[in-house]
Automatic annotation (TrEMBL):
Gene Ontology terms: cellular component: plasma membrane
Membrane topology category: Multi-pass membrane protein
Source organism (scientific name): Ramlibacter lithotrophicus
Binding site for Zn(2+): 472, 476, 548
Transmembrane feature ranges: 26-45, 153-174
InterPro entries membership: AAA+_ATPase, AAA_lid_3, ATPase_AAA_core, ATPase_AAA_CS, FtsH, P-loop_NTPase, Pept_M41_FtsH_extracell, Peptidase_M41
Protein name: ATP-dependent zinc metalloprotease FtsH
Amino acid sequence: MNGSTPPRQPNGTAKPGGGTLPPRKYWPWFLLVVLVNYLLVSYLFPQPNAPVTVPYTVFREEAGKGNVTAIYSRGTTIEGRFRAAVTWPTQEEVKQAGQQAPRTALDRRLLPPPRTSVYFSTELPAFFDRGLEDFLIRNKVEISAVPIQQGGLWNTLLLFAPALLIIGFYVWMYRRMAGQGGGMGGMFGIGRSKAKRYDTADAANRVTFNDVAGIDEAEAELVEIVDFLKAPDKYTRLGGSAPKGVLLIGSPGTGKTLLAKAVAGEAGVPFFSMSAAEFVEMIVGVGAARVRDLFKQARESAPAIIFIDEIDAIGRARGQMGAIGGHSEQEQTLQQILTEMDGFSGREGIIVLAATNAPDVLDRALLRPGRFDRRVVVNLPDKTGRAAILGVHVRKVPLGPDVSLEELAQATPGFSGADLKNLVNEAALLAARRSENAVGHKDFLDALEKIVLGPERPLLLSADDRERIAYHESGHAILGLVVAGADPVHRVSIVPRGQALGVTYQRPQTDRYNYPEAYLRARIIGMLGGRAAEEVVYGTKTTGAENDIEQATQLARNMVTRWGMSDALGMVQLAPRENQFLGGPAGFGGEKPFSEQTAALIDAEVQRIINDCHEEAKRLLRAHRAALDSLVAALLRTETVSEEEILQATGLPPAPQLEARPLRG
Ligand SMILES: Nc1ncnc2c1ncn2[C@@H]1O[C@H](COP(=O)(O)OP(=O)(O)OP(=O)(O)O)[C@@H](O)[C@H]1O
Ligand SMILES: [Zn+2]
């Protein structure tokens, strides 16, 4: 295990937009209740006036007897009324059918259960009965132009009334249980937006730019929006049109929601927030209705901010949306947003802020002028930014005198604002558990370790296993000292944590934005150092290197396919770039844009890099065997060793950093 890059933590903080029940999961229950009720009621109260379906011959026979008073025909179906109620099938017929002993199940099903009614319906035979009209007139059958009333509306209502009553009762019960304003907003509030409204007037939940740190560029771009909301006339006086939509683009947890709230807070206008995922419902049209309602609410309290989180959930380019359900629903919802945004003039003082971390999948229509034509990128904070964000979050936390926010900022490359908030929280909890009066530096370091590496895990290990793990981790650590350009080693531990049996914690001295090839090789060599040490010392292999192998392979593959670092393949893009805001490959979408030979060459080059680094790792560890052994001894003694202890135990200086020097000659 080699912990050189802290993995990004999922945003662990509660989203300001969240908190309502997802109504979607109630729909199947709702439908089930309606269905059960319907069946129950129609069984308990059979409709007295439901028509009996009779064969055409029976109908003619009855008409001949003068028992038919009126008919109404629709297509090949005739509906009508008998003078005296008729039962069909008759008892003789049922008996006959029984005697004939049905040969198949199908035969038996031909006869429906007997019914009696004055209303009937029948099907005209495919061959046209020419004399029918004359025949009916002769038998004084009234041929009606309108459907024969069968108790009509009342009948239907009678059938549904008990069901409605029962449903009404359920709703009432549900509302009582859910309490005020809770739950699904009532069965009848489906089309209403469940936007959360924050009134920025009361100081308690007012967020200002004071609460936002470390993302100054994004903040600066939004100052203008605040100005506009404060005094719209100033901008529109000369006929200029105000901004309508701003798209906030950035990785999860970078503070997009926070920024939007701060804009509202600074301007002192209400803030309506909704997650795009909440717009999308099973039933087509509901999303659009919610959008309409959201904009209506905002318009009523303009000037106001509307914030739509995760807009990519509905704003995906049309045609790109999955074929599975919800397709046209998304389209309609998106269309409604566009319509609403086109509808308001910009004078009304409503500004729509939307957040996304996948800007490249958005529908073009969203980005056209007059819609989300402004884009503000919210980057992960740099070291200074991280220190500032920590500063915001420690405001209410009593700090020990030894805490250095600078140092913590340095130790947390890749952390988002939300991650940093989480770090402060974890440290405070830890200090409280340790019954301290202030949060000290050690609390922060331990919290960081827990976040990055997972909590400690009690595990009973044999002495042999412990020694092997110590050699594995020391292998990583020694190479972190002797390979030029390797990240400094801060801590080595053989306390099992999370998935790992041991940990070597390395981290770069500064934030890196551009990686030299030599640095990448140094990292691969370090990653392979665990296995290399086991081989050098024991001559055998274990499964303990799985994670290392995975990381090293990934890095080597990127060198070959994305960064043009293989002479055999040259500067050809052979893998897509990562989604900048989410990490992970964006995908070429199916077909690989290269041949089988190239694929084979890529594999060969990746193998070459790994094998070279592996050999180098083994060579270096053999050369520094004494240092390796003494670090292992120190580890077995104390389980965790700090940077100074490592340098002391090994007698080695920290690895020289890579310098950029022009080539000579
Ligand atoms: N730049 C920052 N300054 C101060 N606090 C921050 C910053 N960025 C994030 N935070 C903290 O993290 C919390 C979560 O951030 P927020 O929800 O705004 O991120 P987001 O970018 O909207 O995330 P997501 O994409 O997951 O919705 C905020 O409430 C805030 O406390
Ligand atoms: Zn390892």
